[in-house]
Design goal:
Layout lengths: L1 H22 L1 E6 L3 E3 L4 E8 L5 E8 L2 E6 L7 E3 L16 E4 L8 E9 L6 E11 L7 E3 L4 E2 L4 E11 L4 E6 L2 E2 L5 E8 L6 E10 L9 E10 L3 E11 L41 H21 L1
């Protein structure tokens, strides 16, 4: 009988303990999965005490405690040196911890642990991994583009996104429409000196057609993305240039008036025969010369 009572008492204590544990619940862990190098991250830990009393809130990075909040302590906040973790105490509390000056070492597994008061010290926790990204310091750079194009011209340009970690994803647009795949070459990657950051390069190349103009203008844009933290774009505006004007009703360019040529050995060329049946005034002179030549020949024979 005593043994049965012991079992009942143990079961009751176990059920009471389970009910108390269920009183303390961690509602939400707000930790960004990605953050930018040099920036900040706000870590949130929302919990419900129900009938329990808060004993402590502790934060860990990769299993190492760096922040502690104990309401019964004076002061209630304590923080401990941890590589890659710099706490802004003025912006931290029992539910929020603010990290500033993030570095590559700030990447890691972050855990929030909430404990109730004695005698049970019920504890709940959740954790999430944070990755630190190195973002480009400038917008993507465009090279090789002209201010004016016409049908048949060739467009060839490189879009370069500055060093980042991870590498940027590049896209080309023509008049806000995604460029066709056969217009593209690359991407290529290049590691910047003294760092593991990577530059990304994507080439755009195509022959201009009438479909590439909208009201005689063409906008070419490159977009660089590192989701979910970064998206920047650069746009180049080009116009359609005018072709040299032609003489009306003819395909010949306007060349200006040219003087009629003259030849000193032939005299006035305007008197030469131009068409069959029309003679110039030079013909009688030729006949007269032949007559004098004939007379000179006769005199030579008779002489």
């Amino acid at each position: 009988m005593m043994k049965m009572r012991s079992y009942v008492l143990i079961a009751a204590l176990f059920m009471w303990k389970q009910d108390c544990i269920n009183c303390l619940r961690l509602l939400e862990l707000r930790v960004p999965t990605h953050a930018a190098k040099g920036g900040e991250a706000i870590l949130g830990c929302q919990f419900d005490l129900e009938n329990d009393v808060l004993y402590s809130v502790k934060w860990y990075k990769d299993g190492r405690e760096f922040y502690r909040y104990i309401p019964m302590s004076d002061p209630p906040i304590s923080h401990f040196a941890t590589p890659g973790v710099m706490v802004d105490v003025s912006r931290s509390s029992n539910t929020v911890v603010t990290l500033v000056h993030l570095s590559q070492e700030s990447s890691g597994l972050y855990r929030c642990e909430v404990s109730g008061e004695a005698p049970l010290f019920a504890t709940v926790y959740e954790e999430k991994y944070v990755t630190i990204y190195l973002l480009p310091e400038s917008k993507p750079q465009l090279t090789g583009l002209e201010d004016k194009y016409n049908i048949g011209d060739k467009v060839k340009s490189n879009c370069t996104s500055a060093g980042s970690r991870p590498e940027a994803q590049l896209k080309w647009f023509i008049n806000n429409r995604l460029a066709a795949k056969n217009y593209l070459r690359g991407p290529w990657y290049r590691t910047t000196p003294n760092t593991d950051a990577v530059e990304t390069i994507l080439e755009l190349s195509f022959i201009v057609g009438s479909n590439h103009f909208q009201f005689d203008t063409m906008d070419v844009k490159c977009q660089a993305t590192i989701a979910p933290l970064y998206q920047e774009e650069s746009t180049h505006h080009a116009v359609r240039y005018e072709i040299q004007s032609l003489k009306p009703y003819t395909d010949e360019p306007i060349l200006g008036e040219k003087p009629i040529p003259t030849f000193s050995g032939f005299g006035d060329t305007t008197l030469l025969q131009l068409e069959e049946g029309k003679t110039s005034t030079a013909a009688p002179r030729l006949h007269l010369n032949l007559f004098f030549l004939f007379l000179a020949f006769v005199r030579y024979i008779n002489g």
